[in-house]
Each structure stands twice: as structure tokens, then as C-alpha cells.
Automatic annotation (TrEMBL):
UniProt xrefs under Pfam families: Big_2
Domain of life: Bacteria
InterPro entries linked: Big_2, Invasin/intimin_cell_adhesion
Xref: SUPFAM superfamilies: Invasin/intimin cell-adhesion fragments
Residue ranges of the TM segments: none
Occurrences of domain BIG2 (ranges): 33-105
Protein name, per record: Ig-like domain (Group 2)
């Protein structure tokens, strides 16, 4: 009968194995579970009309995106969110049975923010820049309408200031706000820069085939011509 021979393992080897196991370092034969992918933002604040692309950190499988309230925030299959209304919504990314969330708070824009955005366009669209009826544009709030000339200019300025904000219309001078688009007499469109109790100043395109800043229009003239306001607040 063969005798069993005792094998003495070096103390250093034993301590090394114990250290690897205790620290979670993978050793031969040990199954390691991959860490779940996470959204790059756990919380986010947007203004109405803003968009943002959420991303997953190293997803191992296909990711599905879900919004808890589509009337406030929508999300595409690629994780692009769009803010439509004041409120809070939770975006959930599902990767198999694992999930990660991002809480999005949507706030309304202020007139100060809109004014700053529009005033910052004076260099891009300077006084006298060529702008006639050959300039066409499809606005974000009227995607089925292709407009030219003054309409195209006003819609573009509005989209830059408000993003994907939805639009409403009215005909009340007292409710006019900075950034509103006004259709005057169904023949000319302008964007409001400032407003007082008796007048507005505007920026407009296709005035003698050019861009025009700071024209003053009185309340009396607006009411005489007839007007419709498109607001995106």
C-alpha cells in the first residue's frame, strides 16, 4: 500500500490565494458577474424645448428606453430626450433584467433667457443681411409647413430660442412676451424683442429682402392691421 505523502505549501502562496479571494480578484474557476451598465446621468434639469442625449456606460446588450410621462419628457430608441412641459419624469433604461434610471426635472423658460438667446444672434443675422422669399424653413412647432421669407426667418429665430417647445396662439396685445412670433395682417411675420404698454420692437426678415432689427410697432398699428401671436412659453 502506497503511503500518502504530505505536501507542504509555502506560506506565501497560501496568503496570496486568500488575499485574491477576499478582494474579489478573479481566480481560475471563479465566475465573475459583469457590473450593470448605468445611465451617464442620475438626475437632469432641462427647460421646455430642450433635448439631451442620455448614454449608457458599456452596455452588454440591447437597451430599451422608457419615459414615465411622455407628456413631460419623451425618449427615443437611442436615448434622446425632449422636454415638452413643466414637471418631472423618470427615464428608465432596461438592459435585460437590469435597469438604470434618470430623474428629469423640466422648467419653463424665462423671458430673460429668451431675450439673451435672441440678442446673441445679432452677429449671425446682422442688420441688412440678405433674406428674401427664396429662404425656406420648416419650423419645429409646425413640421408640416414649409415657409419662406419673413415666415422662415421668424420661425428659425423662434426655434433657436425655444427648441422643441410647443406653440399656442392668441390675439391679446397684453399677453405678448419677448420671443413671441407675430403674424401681422396675414402678410408679414416678426419676432418680439421688447414690449411696453403701447408698443413692441421686433426683428424680422425679408424687409426689402434683408434682415431688420429694432423696428418699433405701436399697439394701435397692430390692432389696425390685425395680428395673431404665436407663443411658446
Amino acid at each position: 500500500m502506497r503511503k500518502l505523502r504530505k505536501v507542504r505549501l509555502p506560506l506565501l502562496f497560501i496568503l496570496t490565494v486568500m488575499l485574491l479571494v477576499s478582494t474579489g480578484y478573479p481566480v481560475k474557476g471563479q465566475k465573475v458577474e459583469a457590473a450593470a451598465a448605468k445611465i451617464n446621468k442620475s438626475a437632469l434639469t432641462l427647460y421646455i424645448g430642450d433635448t439631451y442625449k442620455l448614454k449608457m456606460s458599456k452596455p452588454a446588450a440591447a437597451v430599451s428606453w422608457i419615459s414615465s410621462n411622455n407628456s413631460i419628457v419623451t425618449v427615443t430608441l437611442q436615448g434622446k430626450v425632449t422636454a415638452y412641459k413643466k414637471g418631472t419624469a423618470v427615464i428608465t433604461a432596461l438592459e435585460g433584467k437590469k435597469k438604470s434610471t434618470c430623474r428629469i426635472t423640466v422648467r419653463p423658460r424665462t423671458e430673460a433667457q429668451v431675450s439673451k438667446k435672441i440678442e446673441g444672434l445679432r452677429n449671425k443675422y446682422p442688420q441688412g443681411m440678405s433674406w428674401d422669399n427664396s429662404k425656406l424653413y420648416v419650423s419645429k412647432y409646425e413640421p408640416n409647413v414649409i415657409g419662406g421669407g419673413c415666415y422662415a426667418f421668424a420661425s428659425r429665430i423662434s426655434d433657436i430660442a425655444f427648441g422643441y417647445s410647443p406653440a399656442e396662439t392668441h390675439q391679446d396685445f397684453e399677453k405678448i412676451r419677448i420671443g413671441d412670433t407675430i403674424r401681422i395682417g396675414d402678410y408679414h411675420s416678426v419676432v418680439v424683442l421688447t414690449k411696453s404698454d403701447t408698443s413692441i420692437t421686433v426683428v424680422e426678415g425679408n424687409v426689402n429682402s434683408a434682415v431688420n432689427w429694432d423696428r418699433k410697432i405701436s399697439k394701435e398699428d397692430l390692432e389696425l392691421e390685425g395680428f395673431q401671436v404665436t407663443t411658446r412659453y
